[in-house]
Specification:
6-stranded mixed β-sheet, 13 helices, 26% helix, 425 residues, alpha/beta
């Protein structure tokens, strides 16, 4: 099987040996009504309402969405407007914690009866893809085409991030329990867990636990970037190609992150919806890099202070990894469902862009052999037909082209803007 183009990154896995710690309860949480792909939720509570851990506080009738729950017990102090990283706004429920973490009386283990009840329960859990994309899980698990393999993403190929790795080491049985439950209820005969080769302990642990499970294969992936990207992962584990405009389900595949699988197992055991997130805190401004579990809606500032961060020195704050993460405009922004890392940097130097020297490195780095320089030229002239010929819709914005460019051109950013010119399907 032909290997796709890739780049070699310095992994900087400073926290791989750091067991997960629990952040002290914050005084207030701020929970946005949009923490997933699709339509934002509408608040179901009002100011002065009392809520508990697991209380549903946001929902919508829109197809592409997922409900949102309180991560703490306390009192609703405000319903405000929140500026998201993409520049849009949504409503946000601000809750003052009471310190008791009283669980909502409706929280109880889930009893499955059939596929329909399973999907309904998954929706009610508020589950979304925890690898960063935030695709509602109940929709992903209900495709229109037959599925014959579940691909589970344990690559975690971005530098710095180790939150998935710690889950694979500390709670592998929880992940496997979620995988088996999804396979059984959804009628998927086979699963493949892809783990990068730079995680030998995790690979060994999963191979030992699955040695008598013929239906689950552990696939060792090369330690190159972007192994964890959905289409790359599918090709690396199954050899199948997801073409432009296709979904993984069109090739008989569902992709799920290890953290999502682990959450589903925990949810069906306890009934507790998605109300907390485990993430990595790291970066040059952080004195105590760590992996921590926090209530969703916790201000980033609280997590940074716990990690002994020199907040005043930060000149770049990233939600996620350095390759595909989103810049954060304030340390008081809340931690949301899709967060798997916060990187605080004080040594960031803005790149100086120069003219393209036509070296072709961007093409050699792109897993799909796209031509970022040609896409850049077509974007400047708003030549939509040329952008379509150049297959810009295949770009997954992994950032490899920008990373290798000696002229420091923002190629991945331009690709993303160019995709916005394509006709909507």
């Amino acid at each position: 099987m032909k290997r796709l183009n890739s780049v070699h990154l310095k992994h900087c896995k400073n926290t791989e040996d750091c067991s997960v710690e629990r952040l002290p309860l914050p005084k207030i949480v701020k929970i946005p009504m949009s923490m997933h792909m699709g339509a934002p939720c509408n608040p179901l509570v009002k100011v002065k309402d009392q809520v508990f851990v697991g209380t549903k506080i946001g929902d919508t009738d829109a197809f592409m969405s997922a409900p949102i729950h309180s991560s703490v017990s306390g009192t609703v102090k405000a319903i405000s407007d929140y500026l998201m990283a993409n520049g849009r706004t949504c409503k946000m429920v601000e809750i003052e914690t009471d310190g008791n973490q009283t669980v909502d009386e409706n929280i109880k283990p889930i009893n499955l009866s059939d596929r329909a009840s399973f999907l309904k329960s998954v929706r009610e859990s508020g589950a979304v893809g925890l690898g960063g994309a935030g695709f509602p899980t109940h929709i992903k698990l209900n495709p229109k085409t037959p599925i014959d393999i579940l691909v589970v993403n344990g690559a975690e190929c971005e530098p710095y991030i180790t939150s998935d790795y710690r889950l694979m080491l500390d709670n592998p049985k929880r992940i496997l329990g979620g995988i088996k439950k999804v396979m059984k209820v959804c009628g998927i005969p086979k699963a493949c867990v892809g783990i990068e080769a730079n995680k030998p302990q995790a690979i060994a642990k999963f191979k030992e636990l699955t040695k008598d499970m013929e239906e689950i294969e552990i696939h060792e992936l090369p330690s190159t970037y972007p192994q964890g990207a959905e289409k790359v992962l599918i090709y690396s584990t199954t050899g199948r190609i997801v073409a432009e405009g296709e979904l993984p389900s069109d090739q008989g595949v569902i992709v799920m992150n290890v953290s999502t699988a682990g959450f589903l197992q925990s949810y069906f055991e306890t009934g507790m919806p998605l109300v907390e997130r485990t993430l990595t805190i790291d970066g040059s401004a952080v004195k105590k890099p760590c992996n921590i579990t926090v209530p969703i809606g916790t201000p980033i500032r609280d997590a940074l202070e716990y990690a002994q961060t020199d907040i005043e020195s930060i000149n770049k704050l990233i939600m996620g990894g350095p390759m595909m993460g989103m810049c954060v405009y304030s340390v008081d922004s809340p931690i949301i469902k899709m967060n798997n890392a916060i990187l605080a940097l004080n040594d960031y130097v803005p790149p100086v862009t120069t003219d393209c020297i036509k070296c072709g490195r961007c093409i050699k780095a792109c897993p799909f052999n796209l031509m970022p320089r040609e896409i850049e030229l077509a974007y400047k002239t708003k030549n939509v037909s040329q952008l379509q010929k150049l297959k810009v819709g295949l770009c997954m914005n992994c950032g490899s082209c920008t990373y290798v460019c000696p002229a420091k051109r923002p190629l991945a950013e331009t690709n993303q803007l160019a995709k916005g010119l394509l006709p909507r399907r």
